[in-house]
Amino acid sequence: MIRSILFTAVSVSLCLGVPTVGHAASKEDQKNLRGLAECAYLVRIAEGNGVQLKTNSSMWDQAKANLAFQAQLDAARADEEARAKFKRRERVLGSEKVMQEIIRGARNCESQI
Q1: What is the total count of domains within the chain?
Q2: Any idea what DSSP says for residue 5?
Q3: SS3 per residue for 40-69
Q4: Hey, is 113 helix, strand or coil?
Q5: How many CB atoms lie within 10 A of CB 79?
Q6: How large is the average pLDDT for residues 76-100?
Q7: Do 3 and 59 contact (CB within 8 A), yes or no?
Q8: What tens digit of pLDDT does each residue of 15-68 get?
Q9: Which helix (H) or strand (E) holds 25?
């Protein structure tokens, strides 16, 4: 409940464009955003396929939104890059193999927390 309230507050502040003390996005911020977007995508797909995880995709999405807002980066672009990465892999390796990788990747993301 508290997480959803916090996520709502962050979303509203993003929509309203509340000014904050920002900094220029560094390469490290971009790398972290790509990692968060990938984990959010992996966990979302794993959840949709019935995999039980300790963290849910909304937690990853919230962390991604916070970093994107603070670093003034485009979270939607990071999402699209994560999606495209696994769509390419699916075309090359096949859907069953990629699904196994997605589930393994989602569990790996959990272990990083």
Answers
A1: 1
A2: H
A3: HHHHHHHHHCCCCCCCCHHHHHHHHHHHHH
A4: coil
A5: 20
A6: 92
A7: yes
A8: 444 444 445 568 999 999 999 999 999 999 999 999 999 999 999 999 999 999
A9: none
Specify the long-range contacts of residues 47-55, CB closer than 8 Å, at least 24 apart: 49/99, 49/103, 51/103, 51/106, 53/106, 53/107, 53/110, 54/110, 54/113, 55/109, 55/110, 55/113
Residue the block writes with tokens 């807002």: 69
pTM > 0.85: no
Q: How many CA atoms lie within 13 A of 63 on its CB side?
A: 18
Query: Two tokens at 37?
Result: 């977007």
Q: Is 98 helix (H, G, I), strand (E, B) or coil?
A: helix
For residue 86, give its domain range: 2-112
Q: Measure the CA–CA gap between 6 and 50, rounded to whole angstroms.
A: 26
- Contact 11/61 with Cβ under 8 angstroms? no
More confident residue, 10 or 31: 31
What percent of the chain is helix, strand and coil (3-state, nearest 5)?
80, 0, 20
